[in-house]
Design brief:
Blueprint lengths: L1 H8 L5 H9 L3 H21 L3 H6 L13 H5 L7 H11 L5 H25 L11 H11 L5 H20 L18 H22 L3 H14 L3 H22 L4 H6 L5 H4 L3 H31 L30 H28 L1 H14 L3 H7 L6 H13 L3 H4 L26 H6 L2 H15 L3 H13 L3 H11 L6 H13 L7 H9 L12 H11 L4 H13 L3 H6 L14 H14 L12 H16 L8 H8 L3 H7 L7
Helix pairs in contact: 2-3, 3-7, 6-9, 7-8, 7-9, 8-16, 9-10, 9-11, 10-12, 11-12, 17-18, 17-19, 18-19, 22-23, 23-24, 24-25, 27-28, 31-32, 32-33
Length: 665
């Protein structure tokens, strides 16, 4: 290690010595880039949870599905951009794990950085080599918002790879000097060769990557502008318009809008969703701004290197040598260059880190929602409750209540969290299927048909994601629809990470079609609602009451009925069901039920049959303390809100008085 730093700082060692150590002609750039992507990967792995993108299944941005087999592959070979979409769908499945997701994004960002650097080197702009980090930083920003456009990133990677291939096959003409200046006109043979290579690559790339071909054509035109082959530049810009039209519209019969935007985030698709429209606006705004900056810098470069400009004879400066100078490179033996390299590297890392942390911070609410959604999908109830914050929308409140039920805390800690009377059961009648984990609640309650309808809608809206297929397969087995179950399970056997689960159930169905040994299937069958409600709005209380009428042991339906009375501030109705508590294996009377009983006793002053249950004296004292605090403010409960919140913000007393909860959390 000591020898390495001596190598960097010592003046005796030359470039060949550095190259022999494996760092090439620019060891500083290689070290800088390596450190950047090591930090890039560590940030994605440890600071973000990219597997949340997989479990979101289309909540934020479209998530591609992938199945093994020829039938699925054939769907992608009959339109431009299909091959890259197929490959992107395959790569997307590795977002199932956080570390593989971080590795995949890092590799794609590294490839984009490498190709961009190759392009900048080919057009002889060493001072602009820092631009190669723009796309990786942009990907870092997207990932910090838990957004990733798989097809777009993969297709742009393909376009840049083809760009590097074009630049490699068609070097500057013989009449050009090494720094890109044209000393003579381009020969006819070399001109035909360049046009032929571009045409072949254009046909291949457009079929493979679709709309990303536009990036390839524009960047090739820029390279020809630098090489001063203006006819080629004009030809390539025209091809950017003509190739998608001829190959896409005329040959493949693709819709014109799709012909130019295939595999890319498209505005015309986003007008149906305000969320997508804002995301696509961000994507294209950054791309357009980057392109404008690049064009301005190119124009500046051409002006500085105009051969008609007079050389500075006083200083002996020759602009012809600047492009091959040490500009932008780390040269051993120069301490000033070392300091510049350190400063530039630190500036790069600070900019990238600041951008990532800024966008991560402003989207912390989205991360919280996705994390809660992930824990709900995995039925990780304690972790869900630890993650849920003070500010939660109706969908998060729904899964919080389900987590409270499964941890035995619904009747005792529900007012630690924000509550909403409409959050207990979300039926999907409003057509909002984005936060789809809420539809597990009807399934657990026994509303199997409602859950099946909602997950089928999700399948239509977001694609055949394995998480939807698993739920629909489970519902089909509960309903003894073995044929449908085998269809869903058969599809799951072709996925990458859910095939074992599907094969296990297929094997069990062969031996035991009734699945008598499967506890969850048998439980769901026992609570399954037989009565069919009409397809109109039905109050949740009626649904819960019907569920416990058909199965008195449906504890979830019972607790949800009691909770609905608490949220509706109807403690007198809750009291009527206290006698049913003994049917659930001697469950103690929850705290909030006792608080509701105390309120009824205080308001009505009538004896209440507690069916053998007792009231904790401490809870009675809390009621008296609430009354005392309000009395101190002349009976004005609004004036006493802070005093009541301070001592009783997590109680039903506070919710009953003020209509909201979650203050204590």
């Amino acid at each position: 290690m000591t020898g390495f730093f001596r190598t960097l700082s010592g003046g005796a060692l030359n470039q060949r010595r550095i190259a022999e150590m494996g760092f090439g002609r620019d060891p500083g750039g290689a070290i800088q880039t390596s450190i950047f992507f090591i930090l890039f990967y560590l940030y994605l792995w440890f600071c973000l949870d990219l597997h949340l993108i997989y479990y979101s299944a289309g909540m934020i941005a479209p998530f591609p599905v992938f199945f093994r087999g020829e039938a699925f592959f054939q769907q992608f070979i009959y339109y431009p951009g299909g091959p890259v979409e197929y490959f992107a769908a395959f790569l997307a499945q590795f977002f199932y794990y956080s570390w593989t997701a971080a590795l995949l994004v890092t590799l794609q960002a590294g490839l984009l950085c490498l190709c961009t650097g190759c392009f900048l080197n080919a057009i002889h702009v060493p001072r602009l080599r820092c631009l190669r980090f723009i796309i990786p930083i942009f990907l870092l920003i997207l990932c910090s918002q838990y957004i990733y456009y798989f097809a777009a990133t993969t297709s742009i990677s393909a376009a840049l790879l083809f760009l590097c291939l074009y630049l490699k096959i068609t070097p500057p003409s013989r009449g050009e000097s090494s720094d890109g200046k044209t000393a003579a006109s381009v020969g006819r043979g070399r001109s035909i060769q360049a046009a032929s290579v571009f045409l072949i690559l254009s046909i291949l790339l457009y079929y493979i990557a679709g709309g990303a071909y536009l990036f390839f054509a524009v960047l090739c035109a820029i390279s020809e502008l630098i090489r001063r082959r203006y006819f080629h530049m004009f030809l390539f810009l025209v091809s950017a318009v003509m190739v998608p039209y001829v190959q896409g519209v005329l040959i493949f019969s693709v819709n014109p809008a799709n012909a130019y935007t295939a595999s890319l985030p498209a505005f015309w698709k986003a007008f149906y969703s305000d969320n997508l429209l804002s995301l696509y606006t961000l994507v294209y705004s950054i791309c357009i701004i980057t392109l404008i900056i690049l064009l301005v810098l190119m124009r500046w470069y051409l002006f500085r290197h105009d051969p008609t400009r007079k050389k500075n004879t006083g200083t002996g400066t020759d602009y012809r040598s600047t492009s091959d100078s040490s500009a932008g490179k780390f040269i051993p033996g120069r301490r000033v260059e070392i300091y510049k390299w350190v400063v530039h590297s630190l500036l790069l890392y600070v900019i990238a880190g600041a951008a990532a942390f800024f966008f991560h911070h402003i989207n912390s609410k989205r991360e919280n929602q996705l994390t809660v959604h992930y824990y709900a999908c995995r039925r990780m109830w304690p972790q869900l409750l630890d993650t849920a914050g003070r500010k939660a929308d109706i969908h998060v409140v729904n899964v919080i209540n389900r987590a409270l039920f499964y941890t035995g805390k619904l009747g005792s800690e529900m007012f630690l969290h924000p509550q909403h009377s409409d959050a207990l059961l979300i039926t999907g009648q409003d057509g909002d299927f984005m936060f789809w984990s809420v539809f597990d609640t009807p399934l657990d309650l026994g509303l199997v048909n409602l859950a099946q309808r909602n997950f089928s809608e999700c399948l239509e809206s977001y694609g055949e994601h394995p998480l939807f297929l698993k739920r629909l397969a489970l519902i089909a087995m509960v309903k003894r629809d073995i044929g449908a179950a085998k269809i869903y399970l058969g599809a799951l056997t072709k996925t990458l990470f859910h095939a074992d689960w599907a094969r296990e159930y297929l094997a069990r169905l062969q031996v035991d079609p009734e699945l008598l040994t499967d506890d969850r299937i048998q439980h769901l069958r026992s609570v399954c609602l037989q009565f069919e409600f009409p397809d109109i709005y039905i109050p949740g209380e009626m649904i819960y009451a019907q569920l416990i009428t058909e199965n008195r042991k449906n504890q979830m339906a019972f607790e949800y009925l009691m909770t609905s009375y608490l949220l509706g501030r109807q403690p007198e109705k809750l009291v009527e069901y206290i006698g049913r508590m003994e049917e659930f294996n001697d469950i103690p009377l929850p705290r909030h039920y006792q608080e509701a009983i105390c309120i009824c006793d205080y308001i009505n002053s009538k004896p209440i049959d507690l069916a053998g249950y007792g009231i904790d004296p401490h809870i009675k004292n809390q009621l008296f303390d609430c009354n005392r605090l309000i009395s101190q403010y002349g009976g004005n409960k609004e004036a006493a809100i802070h005093a009541v919140y301070k001592g009783h913000g997590d109680s039903y007393f506070f919710y009953y008085l003020y209509g909201f909860s979650g203050a204590k959390r």
